[in-house]
């Protein structure tokens, strides 16, 4: 796989790759904590953790070990005009998307998956996604890119994180431009109320992964702002297990 090391990457507010070490500045707490020594340690909060049902053939099918945040049906909670599509399983290959420039980065967009609303400086505020596991993938990728934008990053966090101490922690952090670019995704677990999406990144010839906790709130996918704590990243030796997803791939 060819790496474009000259392209600006996701800011250190999200991920920064250098010397083989991935640093993630916002994900941790009850959802996922990843060590930086090549191993992975996951801790669970009983009321928020999503677990994939044993024996399920679909990465997007899951059950919750805690209390769901909403009792409404997927169809009733579909926002932004997208049709209900919860039965759709995550793609085993990259969805067909168009990559748009957001500052110095490229962000994926699809008329079927989202974002359905783009605003703000550099078009960095990218909202409204299909209520499906693949819609969650699109949200995770776009919010990470938008939060990296030097002009609109804080506004992205304000609008696309749910309230909570984790949201304030991110706003208090100083984001610095990094060198990592999106390279792939993995749906770790997903149900109508919440999803864990792992975004693989590449930079400087290295790979790493950041797990983004999403919740379905107000008719859209948002980052769970109740998540607190700073975790280190998970270095990856390869993209094995990830669906390749980057601007360099043919749609």
Structural overview:
The chain is of the alpha+beta class and 251 residues long. It has one domain. Helices cover 13% and strands 30% of the residues. The chain contains three helices and 16 strands. It has helices at 133-148, 153-160, 165-172; strands at residues 15-18, 21-24, 33-34, 40-41, 50-52, 62-64, 98-102, 105-109, 117-119, 125-127, 181-191, 194-203, 206-217, 220-223, 234-236, 243-244. Strands 11, 12, 13, 14, 15 and 16 form a six-stranded antiparallel sheet that branches. Strands 1-2 form a two-stranded antiparallel sheet. A two-stranded antiparallel sheet has the order 3-4. A hairpin with a 2-residue loop joins β12 and β13 (206-217). α1 packs antiparallel against α2. The chain is globular, with a radius of gyration of 16 Å. InterPro entries: DUF8175. Keywords: Membrane, Transmembrane, Transmembrane helix. Residues 67-244 form the DUF8175 domain. Residues 40-76 have a biased composition (Low complexity). This is DUF8175 domain-containing protein.
Which terms summarize this structure?
single chain, 13% helix, 3 helices
Strand content: 25-35%
Number of strands: 16
Average the pLDDT over all residues and give the rounded result.
Answer: 70
Q: Regions with pLDDT < 50 over 5+ consecutive residues?
A: 1-9, 16-77
Give the H and E element order. Answer: EEEEEEEEEEHHHEEEEEE
Form type:
globular
Distance between the termini: 16 Å
Q: How many helices?
A: 3
* Helix percentage: 10-25%
Radius of gyration, in angstroms, nearest whole number: 16 Å
Task: Tell me the domain tally.
Answer: 1
Structural class: alpha+beta
Major beta-sheet overview? 6 strands, antiparallel
